[in-house]
User: Fold these one by one.
Assistant:
Number 1:
Amino acid sequence: MLQKKVCMLGSFAVGKTSLVRRYVDSMFSEEYTTTIGVKVDKKTLTVIETDVALLLWDVYGEDSHQSVLPAYLRGMAGYLLVVDPTRPNTFESALSLHKLVLDTLGPKPYILVLNKCDLKDQWNTLSNSIELLSDTAITVVETSAKVDVGVNEMFEALAIALLNTSSAASSEK
Amino acid sequence: MATTREDTTKNQKSLQQSEAGRELKALRELLLSTDRDRLEEAYRRLDALEKRLSPDARTRETSEILVNAMRHRLAGDDQLVDFLKPVVVEQFHRTSRDEPDIMADALFPILGPAIRKMIASMLIPDSKNKKRPYRLDHLYLIDKESGLPLCHVSSSKASTQDAAMVSGMLNAIQSFVHEAFNANEFDGLDVLQVGGLSVWIEWGPSAVLAAVIRGLGPQHLRDEMQIYLEKVHMDYAVELQQGQGDTKAFEPLGAELTAFLDHHDDSLKNKVKRLHPRIKQWLLGLVVVALGLSLWTLFSIVEKNRWDEFLAHIESEPGIVVTGSDRRFRAYRVSGLKDALARNPVELLANSGINPEYVRLDFELYQAIHPKFVLARIHTLLAPPTGVELSLEGRRLRVTGNISEQWVKNAQTLVKSVAGGHNIVVVHD
């Protein structure tokens, strides 16, 4: 079986843990508890007739007091860059994290995740960062961990992208 | 007309020029033919030389002779070695200074054995080498960069956790400690301990070996982990470098890791497995002999019990007196006295479970004075008519039925001749 390390990156309280909980355990809780350090979960899926095990590293959210340790990013095959469009400053954090990845590992496949689409009437997507992030992303996905929208599709899209990247890398060798 | 004349003049001139040209050419041929050939040859050679002197051609030619030239030189003397030595040393220094990771990766498989040899030669063996109980529950081989598990085995007695999550968390903890406390980049987390459970971790340049130990692990276990990890780096260098997350290439390690695990399992089953084959054969032989002896003993006990039971039975039988008995393997003997009217001992043997072929019965006839036999003999002797019954009560022979007094008197006389009947009194009711 193919195994891929995938990191959940984003500012605090954008819904990274909720997305993982929804995907892995099909659960959602309104209660917010901040993630300390990193939590590792695993989900196995089949895409393009290949079994893939996604090791989901749910990294604590970046804020003004703490930034993500680059060491957590080492060895990752791809990442989900999660933003909360109801809080425009989360786009800036996402851009900062994206740059951290580029500086640490170079370009890696990622999906820009616009979470909390159940609150779309409160979204503010006027930030320039969203354009910068969308340009290089595999795709942009609107999700809601609360009402289970787009979550499975998001992970499947990332898994397919990672498989294609693996195949391309194997061919070059 | 003028035009025609001009044309004619022109034609004539041109013809003259052509003629002159041809004559010149012929003259040139005559004068320069030899030199021209030589000149053309010279140009050809020059072109060839230019091609040969081009950088690509020179590189190709030199590469074809370089290896042989060096080999030839090395076979002759050490001048080439002396010449190359400072170059190699300088490059070694530069690489160690500018790219220490490359040096560390290259030296890793051989550094460990060299250091261990040195330490072993310096250390005095520990005289207090007490064996402490421990058990290896899990072994994880983990990709160092990503924390993905490459191979995992666990003891049958251990609870199983998802290897990917365990190895991922170990990697995360290591990353956290490194970054949070500015640990040296070459140092790795060595031990995690909770009560009697510990996780020992050995770090290599591309892979990590983690062992979950229950109990107190001995130092030689860590040495063996190091040795094994070095071997993995040597044998799987290419696969570890590729790091695409495909575990298929590492599947053969499952058997090796399982053997490693079993080797450190202190259960009786594995202790026996680790014994020398000759010792195992001896043990097996001893077990077989012990089993055989046990079966023989059991058989003997059963046989004895049957024989004792038979003897007790036969001794309690009226009209039989046992005077002697003997029991050997498949050779039983009973001797004694038996009344002709007593039950045949062979009948008793049939129900004992003892094979009658192995039993010898030596009985001499005698007359028992058991009341049962006395009455039987009296009955035979007196032959009472129909309707007359005889019964023996102690020393009184009771005659019931229609019989004459004369018969009773005769009976009284005859009874005294029967064994055991000398003091019997005949009474007629």
Number 2:
Amino acid sequence: MKRQLPVFLTFLCAFVLTVQFFVPHRSFEQVYEVSNIWLQILGVFTILIGIMSLVESHLQKIRRRQAQWQYSIITIVGLVLTVAGGLFGSVEAGSGGIFMWMYNNVLNPISATMFSLLAFFIASAAFRAFRARSAMSTILLLAAAFVMLGRVPLGDRMSAGLFPAIADWLLNVPNVAAKRAILIGIGLGEASMALRVMLGIERSYMAGD
Amino acid sequence: MRRLMVWILGMDRRIIFLLLALALVLPLLFPVKLPVRVTPEVKKVYDMVDGLQPGDVILIDMDYGPDTMAELEPMSYSIMRHVFDRGARFVSTCLSATGVSLIESEIRHIAQEKGKTYGEDYVFLGYRPYPASVILSMGQNMRQSFPIDFYNNPLDSLPLMRGIRNYADLRFVMSVSSTSGVDYWIMYGHERYNFPLALGVTAVMAADYYNYLQSGQIEGILGGLKGAAEYETLLGQGDRAIIWMNIQSVCHVLIVALIVVGNIAYLATRKRGV
């Protein structure tokens, strides 16, 4: 029963939601609307589980004095302050509350800095990785160079429009062909996996089964 | 010469960091506006917004946080300015948890600049978790996911929302996003409810969406800072993305020059068996 019930519920939900997609009747629409609301409510509970898991793992790290446990204290203090700031203060811009202060003075600069540093690492990595070691790597580095130059005004000026034309062709022809092949493959894989889950053949979503 | 080539191959990465820092700072100190060539995919988005009539309503979904705001904020600003200039109105959502306050301040900034009134000219619905589910339920009735707006006003108390039930009441949807929410807008939004959809995404994401552009599933696309600069060029308002594009120009040229120099050194030393 412990195994059959989840499999039966999965099949029932998947079957009803698949059928409703093809039946344009008001009652089926209602089923769809209710299931969407349920999905969002269940989603909120998964956030709660995520927070509990985060707190538990970091508390354990602090208790056992594991490597770099000090950062776990910062994580938990940050979590508590953010939640408290959001619950007891305003989350509107210009409100002057602690939540917005943290958002503007902690999250904003940290996120922007982390992302900005990527430019430096990409420059260094491009210098070392893009080497004409073989025919394939030469194609890769040429494509990268043309797209990089073709997507900026200076490259347009330098080549009188040639680099942008090459970059556009690369994006619209080889790129689209490869992406489309990958997407069709993913789509077929997803459909077959969905069918396996629906029919109870794939049960890995039930832990330990 | 050989020693120079060997030195180039093993160049300390801090030299590259320093060169890149100079490439970033110098165009900021001495800004130059190079003309930006407008691509058809950006012109299409511009034409969609330009075709709005006074009173029309669109949905602008803005899903990004501080990490990608440099690329996406100029896009959002240009689109919102253009919508307001056309006398049209917009409903906005943010399906990224870290971006809600940022998006709210951006909308407020442009609304103040254009002298627009909340609830009549624009509405901000805010954030709800699980974008796929939110996008699907908004297709039935926006009130399912958003019974209240970001400021806790019931939707029916807002004049703009009184005639808006779902996507069928909107002219089109524009998603400016740095998240996988874009895929949901295509798969669950456009495919199920068949509304016209345009995208604004980061430069690294843009290549992933050209196939949807070719298949006609999206109407147009603004890719990264370049897309934003093209839109600013067409709109004739704002120049932040255009100026920043020149910084990106110098950086891209520097990176390509480093690749070329690195390959010359690699080929020269390889021939000599180093």
